[in-house]
TrEMBL record:
GO MF annotations in UniProt: FMN binding; oxidoreductase activity
Gene Ontology cellular-component terms listed: cytosol
Short name of one Pfam family: FMN_red
Organism: Pseudoroseicyclus aestuarii
Protein name: Chromate reductase
SUPFAM superfamilies with a match to the protein in the record: Flavoproteins
Stretches assigned to the NADPH-dependent FMN reductase-like domain: 5-147
Superkingdom, taxonomy of origin: Bacteria
Length: 182
């Protein structure tokens, strides 16, 4: 059986994003267990129903990438106790046209990293609700709220031993969850 494929969406658009580095670190930890494929959302226009008259290429590409994957991973920063406009925009584009959403039944893992102590709790709470409404099968536990402490990451690698253990376990659990839904 080939490794499950996961479309990874990162809710930050900035080049030095902690969440992007974290997502790449997760992809490294998942090597041999999950094939993580990064799905760009920074080139999506702001959602506008009128654009379906001549669908933007990045929208069609994103939907195709999500459809082709066995699962999705949503990595979100926290903006004002919620998820980010970029993430919401991607979810909205993927959900339309009505009846052609790319999200239903996709097994989904949600996480995020923030310099603050709540570690994206507010962002994930909102995102979990949105993903559920869109019909994704969201893995409930364990929940992973990462605080960007000194010594956690170097470039795009997790270097703290306890975090490597914990995140490795989370990814293994997600691989099992994806297999169950395949
Ligand atoms: C508009 C805005 C709102 C923010 N609100 C929160 C917040 O509610 N909680 C939090 O922990 N950090 C908050 N932050 C700080 C972000 O967590 C921090 O900038 C983080 O590095 C952003 O993710 P990124 O590095 O992946 O871009 C906010 C940042 C911005 C730009």
């Amino acid at each position: 059986m080939p490794m499950p494929t996961v479309a990874v969406l990162v809710g930050s658009l900035r080049a030095q994003s902690l969440n992007r580095r974290y997502a790449h670190a997760l992809a490294r930890l998942a090597e041999g267990t999950l094939e993580m494929r990064f799905c760009e959302i920074g080139d999506l226009p702001l959602y506008n129903e009128d654009l379906w008259a001549d669908p933007p290429v990045p929208v069609l590409r994103m939907k195709q990438e999500v459809q082709a994957a066995d699962a999705v991973m949503l990595i979100t920063p926290e903006y004002n106790r919620g998820t980010t406009p970029a993430m919401v925009n991607a979810l909205d584009w993927g959900s339309r046209p009505m009846g052609e959403s790319c999200w239903p039944d996709k097994p989904a893992a949600i996480s995020g990293i923030s310099p603050g102590a709540p570690g994206t709790l507010g962002a994930q709470k909102e995102l979990r609700e949105r993903a559920t409404v869109l019909g994704m099968q969201v893995m409930g536990l364990p929940q992973v709220y990462m605080q960007a402490s000194e010594g956690l990451m170097q470039d795009d690698r997790i270097i703290e031993a306890s975090a490597i253990d914990f995140l490795g376990g989370w990814l293994t659990k997600f691989a099992g969850f994806v297999e169950k839904h395949r």
